Amino acid sequence: MNFDIAFLRSYVAGVDLGSYARAADKVGRSTSAVSAQLKKLEEQAGLPLFRKDGRGLALTDGGAVLLSYARRMVELNDEAFVALHGVELEGWVKLGLQEDFGEVLLPDVLGRFARAHPKVRIEAHVARNTALLERLSTGQLDLALLWGGAALPDTLAWPTTQRQTLAAPAMRWIASASLAWQPESGQPLPLITFDRECLFQRCATQALDRAGIVWRTAFTSPSLAGLWAAAAAGLGVTVRTCYGLPASVRALDAQAAGLPALPALSLELLHGASTARPPVDRLAGLIAESLQANLIA
Predict the structure, then answer these.
(1) How far apart are CA 158 and CA 130, in angstroms?
(2) What's the distance, CA 120 to chain centroid?
(3) Is the pLDDT of residue 154 over 60?
(4) I want to staple 57 with a disulfide (CB 3.0 to 4.6 A). Which of 50, 130, 239, 266 is the partner?
């Protein structure tokens, strides 16, 4: 049995978007056509892919297994097409991104891009928002993946066509299972922060102050790896999104931990001035696809 790529594409889109009506829009078909595709996909698989879950549907064990393969098959199909039609792309693309995405994007997206476009050279810079914005404004970067909203200065005046919001993940309190602090202990909450003020730290301390929770700085680091290491050691709590979260730490349930809720933070992809070149646009598309396919609340 050969699985139909079009059926697999609709299947993946429906799971990612949480709705097959929205999936129909994405793949350019009617909702009834997508529903028919899924029935035929179940026939090809020879087992049910969905089960009832309240008023909605959830994946069966077999459906979850197929989803993993379906993603890879659709990606490989698209990669083959791009490789055939984009073989003449060449030049440089200079990309800036946050530390949170170094291990997420570099192996996946950049690997796929490099295989499809071997003549294009990629230069990646991992840094914080301020440094990336400076490089972008001076023409040293073609693309930058940045924390948006309050993290970007009000004076930023990129054209709307050059600024794309990809996601809006919530900031989360991050700690390890060995964290000893309890809200009823009367002890200040130990915070793990960067060695310079950042938006995450500012939002965290403002939320704690509003909630009347006393806090202290327990550990500072110049790098995100240092924050993860300190949190894993149980030295305190840090604040980040769930992107790039290592297995040694976990996102806390704020209410259960006695901590205030934190706001969401937009994630934006910005283009540098006059960088509308095919290699840049193609890499931007892959980054958007990857992050939107792996949305984190």
Answers:
(1) 15
(2) 24
(3) no
(4) 50
